[in-house]
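re: ur question from yesterday

yeah so i grabbed the chain u mentioned. its 260 aa long if i counted rite. heres the sequnce exactly as i have it in my notes:
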Amino acid sequence: MGKLSGIAAKLAAENGFAYAGLHPLMMKVMSDAKATLGKGYAVCGGDGVHPGPNGHLAMAYAFLKALGVDGDIGTFTVDMAGTATATEGHRVVSSDKGSVTIESARYPFCFSGDGTSPNGTRSILPFLPFNRDLNRLTLVVKNLKGSSAEVTWGEGSKTFSKAELEAGVNLADAFPVTPFAKAFAELDGVVSQKQARETRTIKSLITNLPGLESDFKGDAEFLNALGLLRRKLLEQSARDAAQARAAVKPVTHTLRIVAK
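ran it thru and got these structure tokens back, copy pasting raw so excuse formatting
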């Protein structure tokens, strides 16, 4: 697989194609994770071929980076001596003395599982720069009176230095559980149902249609039925896609910043 990956990289460079360096990334992440979590920690699944959620996150990282995704979910800027602002996809609902309520239509990625299980996405984070590169929801605080501040977001609180807050803190990385968790889980459920239907459609139906057409060549009634089936499958796919888009509902959340 390493040799095939090298060939793909060479062809991509020669032809100007995008290249996702999946194999070298997975090998490095697997080596680093096993060194910390033990040899029994699977990154490519128990069979070495079919990853669990942790390996899926690493795969997604490689593909998203190759596609040029910048990972900027948004930035909240809070001026402790003035007002608060938010970038596109977010709207400041209210702001008063370090307490800011925001409505967000753009979600950060939310993680599942604990710090050791391959059956969740959280355990792979120390070995993969996912949050740094692809999942940045940034809080910037200006004119803070004090050397640090306690930031409360949802049910979690953390203390950051003045310098950290002025430079920008990645909330998606700093807070293990975010106010987006419930909405993200609901969206993930809708997407999972869509994916399950797509898998059934492709494996059980689409791949068999050319053979069926050949078997019933010239049978107008059967070919018309196949045409109807194709149309219905495409219509259902469009409904599933629309349902997934509709499941992305704005989340209202509050940041509280208290100087220390």
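noticed a couple things. The CA atoms of residues 153 and 206 lie 46 Å apart. also The chain is about 45% helix and 20% strand.
anyway ttyl
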